[in-house]
Amino acid sequence: MDFSQLKKEYKFLGDILNLYDELDKPLIEDAKYQGILNSCDSAPFLKNDLTGVYKNFCKKLSINMLLLADRDYKGDELIKYCDIFYIWMYFEINKYSIPNEITNELFKASTRVVTSKRSKTPCPYLNFNEKIHEPTKLMKLHIFNNNVYTLQSMLKSAIESDECSLKRYVYKCIEIYRDMYSKYCSNGDDKKEGNQNSCEIINKFNTLYSSYINKKYGILHDFPELSSTIALNVIDGCPLEESESNPIPDKSQQGTPITRGVSTALSSMFTPVRNMFRFGNKKHNIITSDFDKNMENELFHAIKEDSIIKDIQPKYNIGYEPI
């Protein structure tokens, strides 16, 4: 599974989805990021990275965090963009088999640069590869949780051609909730250390779905209670969904794609603020050579002082094939 498949389900995010393509661009060692490049090349606990895989991840992660910070997203808007950043991290970490310890330390060091040198608000730390069950499923619930008001509004005003696509998206989230709640969060299992991060997302879905989708608030469709046993593959007023002829296997089960029609309707929700989402805004290109030198020192010392990883141990097997 890759983001192009998940993207079909998240079209209600509108222009926010464009961020993934921006984050996923190949690394170009631009002079304006020389401080970051030097810091990652000099990081003490990456000195044994003979292939450069971890150093490149360090550079991309730091540059992408700086890119997000420079755009001054606030509040709920920042959280929605952070969701895309977390998904990018998930696929990047899996592609290059980056250990969670390295991701955590690089994230902390980059956060210090964003807060101390730019006085910006960084994304909170979240790694879908770390202490989270079935991450691609939980991505869907996490996205739902952070966009429930948009979904509620769209379900109230969805035109007939879009309505079934919206319903299917919500029903897929219900299916994921039922499955994962029974596995990890019922009978007090949510208190177990290995389940806590997952159950926090799962239980939040319960609260938000029950409060804003299941309780009507102008939504005409009668969505089921989460605790009910009603079948989820038959949706009142909607034709049965055709099965994919060549489904792509994935351990987290691929969700139902949202159709092209719903993309137009849902993306229009973001039209009034599209100018804020443009990536070519000149005000963001403000990195100077003086700042870059300071940033290099800050990132280097943040990594050196905060890291509990003294070396890359042989168990990390730098040269193995990506997942």
From TrEMBL:
Q: Tell me where on the tree of life, at the top rank, the source sits.
A: Eukaryota
Q: What is this protein called?
A: VIR protein
